[in-house]
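Notebook B, p. 112. Complex prediction, attempt 2.
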Amino acid sequence: MRARTRRLYTFGIAAVLLLAAAGLAFMALRQNANLFYTPQTLAEKGLPKEGREVKVGGWVEPGSLTYSADGATMMFTVMDNSDADIKVAFTGIAPDLFREGQGVVAIGQFSPDGTFTARQILAKHDENYQPRELRPEAIGG
Amino acid sequence: MIEAGHFAAFLALGAALAQTIFGLKGDRRWAGMSAVTGFGLMAFSFLTLVHAFAVSDFSLLLVANNSHTLKPMLYKIAGTWGNHEGSMALWALVTFAFGAAAAALMKTGRVNFEAHALGVQGFLTAGAMGYLLFASSPYLRLDPAPFQGAGLNPLLQDPALSFHPPMLYLGYVGYSFVFALAAAGMMDGRIDRVWAKEARRWSLAAFVPLTLGIALGSYWAYYELGWGGWWFWDPVENASLMPWLIGAALLHSVIVTEKRENFAAWTALLSVLAFLFSIMGAFLVRSGVLTSVHAFAVDPERGTILLFGLMVYGVLALGLFVWRGPSLKGAKPWLIVSREGALMANNIVLIVAALTVLLGTLFPLMAEAAGRTMSVGEPYFRLTFVPILAVLLVLLPVAQNWAWGKADLKQWTRWAIAGAALVAVFAALGIGIWKISLGAAFGLALGVWLIGGALWELRRRAVTLKRVFRVSPRVWGMTLAHMGIGLFIIGAVIETTERYETTVALAEGGSGEAAGWTLTLEDVRSIEGPNWYADKAVLTAVKGGVTTVLQPMKRYYPAARMPTTETAIFKTGTGDLYAALGEQRVVDGQARWVFRVYFNPLIDFVYFGVLLIGLGGCLSMVKVKR
């Protein structure tokens, strides 16, 4: 093999690998980039495809927090400036600064009946840190 | 005191400029003297900052904003770099340190080349100093001085995290000197054996602390955040993983340059990229463009300056590369089935893996620019990064014994049979006896494959078993590092696939089940520390004949008005029983405390594996006189 041909092979292999990686990445991104829903966008767009992981954000409606009988699961309502709301269930420890009336972002899936089962809850982390999605301009506060 | 430190920092900037000018003029001696002088001045300046933190001098704005008299001494001192300005001062100091160390240690016999390397390093140092003094000064006074400071973010008040930033910076900044060597090599027109010997050692000097720094951060996240996992694909973690991957690629390509005087331009390019990715990491973390716990100085203006610096360095280095790269000599034809080919394949895969991480990290930013809010989480990385890297690791033991020039493939059937047998054995054991998933069984097989392969290669290099302790430290370094990867894979795969997690809410005196353990909440008491108070739960855990007491805490730091989680971990021998205390809930009139309980199998393999990689790197640096 001449050097030129060999170089061509190398580039070919690198290109194939890169394309495969790009394809993989593209697929993974399509399936896994989390779309963000507020109660309002949910009311406008409807439920995402079943099993699709998404993010839900808004404020925890004051007075809506309840627990399951064994105490492990917390249930609350997320609201925004619209009339719509989303019921969220989460099994686990609430973040340190989780409060009724405060902003919250939940990651998880919708059930067909419109309730949301969260895998993870993010709240304002400290005085300086706030999830991007919860900046006032994002949820109209 | 601080004024003296501030003044010394200006002198240090002068020394860095002198280092640049002398260096680029080719004056090795004076460039080296400037580097050492600059380092001394900056070390003094940094110590005045540390001193201000240690004695809680609140007339210094930085101390007032980030410290508190009640903090333990370790966190007062570590608080110096627990904020943006202080961490940049550390960055500048480490940049000087590498210049000074290089001035003392470089021995290539090429005066011009060494002078140029010091000059480029001086330029990078001057950049860091300029940024420190004019855009992010830690020396500002506050008048009148407040009576008390605002305290350090309590999450950062932790031993592992006290040393995480300095380690990480040694790594990031270490690549500044590798960059300088590449630039000087291109100016000199020689990226050859002599150059590679020097560059390999400095690459290791950056790679080892970077590896340990990442591990410290990950260990901290594991026990401090209370989320059970050790890697969250957080953008900030990714920011440190990318230079690590490029650095790993560089360590392998520089071998080809050293042994065969080949891949010269490619090695130079990787050297440049390793540093550019390091600064990009700093930019991503510091600019606040990413949402993260680490983004403690959210300041778009500074972000813009860092981005500008990144572009200046990038354009200069890549310009130099385009200009001088084609004239470099070390570029010879090579075969795919040869050691050169194997190392190039390693490089391509590592770079592609780094690119998938880059894409996953930047994608949310691009989506946001397009007006959509998105985030990319673990599933993306599991589908892209993991299989790409798996390809590399499966081939590693097979390809690492290929000969230079042209390897023969006679033995490939044996490797294939050994591999297939290993997979079959572990699949049978995993599913039949250990009851783990098929993926986990493959992961175990891969880990054993890597460890076995590394030992096999050691034996091959030593020729006979008796002589394994007489092979060079470098071969031992490679063996340990590759074994470390094997251990890491075992730990990572088993921990990720077989982790058990549950939530229980217990009343005092109540019991619950988790991971086969019976947990009884004895009581929850209030305790006080130097600058915090806490609820501490006392949980008795019983399984079989083993009884242990777990005492997870929820601390509250009044100075920062912020709570933290202190997990309790019991090492069972096969993994960690791990409990985090949550909030109190009132359920049907009864008060219950919520616990998140995990069993993290083989988690220690993850950290032990990474330690071995670091140790291997250290051994590889050892110079042997023949």
